[in-house]
Amino acid sequence: MDIRLEQVNIVVRDMDAMAAFYVRLGLQLDPGRPEWSPHHRNTGGRDGIDFDLDSPEFASSWNEGWPGGTGIVLGFRLAERDDVDRLYAGLTADGCASQQPPYDAFWGSRYAIVVDPDGNAVGLMSPADPARRSPPPPPPSGSSRPR
Question: How far apart are CA 100 and CA 37, in angstroms?
Answer without folding.
Answer: 24
